[in-house]
TrEMBL record:
This is Tripartite tricarboxylate transporter substrate binding protein. CDD domains: PBP2_Bug_TTT (cd07012). It comes from the Bacteria. It comes from Nocardiopsis mangrovi. Belongs to the UPF0065 (bug) family. It holds the Pfam family TctC. The keyword Signal applies. Residues 1-22 form the signal peptide. Keywords: Signal.
Amino acid sequence: MMRARRTAAAAAALLLTAGTGACSGAAGSDEAGTSELTGDVTMVVPFGAGGGSDIAGRTIAAGLEAATGATITVENRDGGAGAIGYTYLLSKQGDPNYLLATETALLSLPMTADTEYHYTDFTPIMSIGEDFTLLVVAPDSPFDGCADAVEAAKEQRVVAGVSGAASLDNAVFAMVEQDTGAEFDRVPFESGGEVMASLIAGRIDIASLNPSEVLGQLESGDLRALCVAADERYDYDALSQIPTAKEEGIDVSYGQFRGVIAPGGITEEAAAHWEDAGREFVAGDAYDDYIAANLLQPGPLYGAEFRAYLDDNRASLEEVMNP
């Protein structure tokens, strides 16, 4: 079904943008260097090197380079849970030579902090897929499934590690609480790596982690997955036996998207240029390799479709972040 959704989304996007023309190489620049594409482009990553956003940004940058012939330099501008990178892109209003590797913080951070930006300040280019979180515990945990963890959290203190108030995992635990009436003692950490280390050390009881960052620990037996917060099970062999939250009686499904945005105020032609380049990237082997290596659910969306997705995603987040 996920493959069918990916195909349908791509076909719809092609219909929406029919007539925009094939992707071309880099164009010239006006005197200010902001209204037309040049050969030098910056891909901003609003988090540090080595993480999921950095990997996504570098992979997409390479794909867009191959599609356009432009030189795309990746620049990490981390800090403030992503706010520094997004604020930097905000300062590049109208300049299509800047892109940003985006994810859920685009929507969630302005709900939990006083940021200068709003997601509507930017131009949506494309999403490449979704990352559905796993609820995981230590191997000796008394919880056999997510239903057990929920029932325990209704009666006693169950400590859940999350990587920040604006993170996907914090939102997932909030959704579980709203659906079930359970209450987890959510403890924030700086990163998913710190959450995982604390879970392995026994300092917390449960965590919500992305498959790509926890697969090694699942395979080694250092951690155990209770369920995945998705509508369907993953079809990767390493994850296919993990039940969904809905199978456990918990009506929660929420994925972290990964994609690309550009500054607001760029021309329609510039936006179409990057959307077309995105389609070329998705049609190649590099996209499939990235999706498989990072255990994502594929689902590319472009331009207006990506904007509609962001609108819906934000509405879901608003219900739990600001109930």
